[in-house]
Write a structure and sequence with these properties.
about 240 residues, nine-stranded mixed β-sheet, alpha/beta, two-stranded antiparallel sheet, 11 strands, Carbamate kinase
Length: about 240
Amino acid sequence: MSKPKYKRVVLKLSGEALAGNEGFGIKPTVIKSIAEQVKEVAELGVEVAVVVGGGNIWRGKVGSEMGMDRATADYMGMLATVMNSLALQDSLEQLGIETRVQTSIDMRQVAEPYIRRRAIRHLEKNRVVIFAAGTGNPYFSTDTTAALRAAEIEAEVILMAKNNVDGVYNDDPKINKDAVKYDQLSYLDVLKEGLGVMDSTASSLCMDNDIPLIVFSFTEKGNVKRAVMGEQIGTLVRGKD
């Protein structure tokens, strides 16, 4: 069997993805499916770090639009990511995969504080590391967290797993049936065309640090492994040209 293309990866999951078609909360069958795909990759010897969003429980932007203080709303969103991270940790450990959750906000009763060198050491021991609570600062998305952590731990690629979206399109494929899917893009293309793959802060961080991004659907089992093995899947967003 051929070797994985990537040795160390960051898997980015949106919070909404954990809710499946329910739109809110955590759907056990979905999180179990994600855990099984992560296990499949970890057993190949790939070092896996995960960043999970919190939109299935709370979105800071929505709270801000309702008149809530933006920083307070964002902190609530960070706590939502911790809940998702603990749920994913439990699913992984039920499958026999040793897992650590590290949080940017100190809460030692439930998780380790984020320490870069400790995170790398866990990865070297083939433990899955889940980065929770975003960057620990308001006004930054979990997309930016994924880009920042990928740069810090020197990950070779960010795998952006989407729910029912198999790549990057020039328009919303759910609305426009003629939307064209891109096989490959540059971060400059993403920023210039406002494609919404990830926010501009995250895109710029990935571009500056030459971190490639693969956008694909995780709903088809085995796609995480296919991405790690280097198969043509979804859309590849390149770092520096």
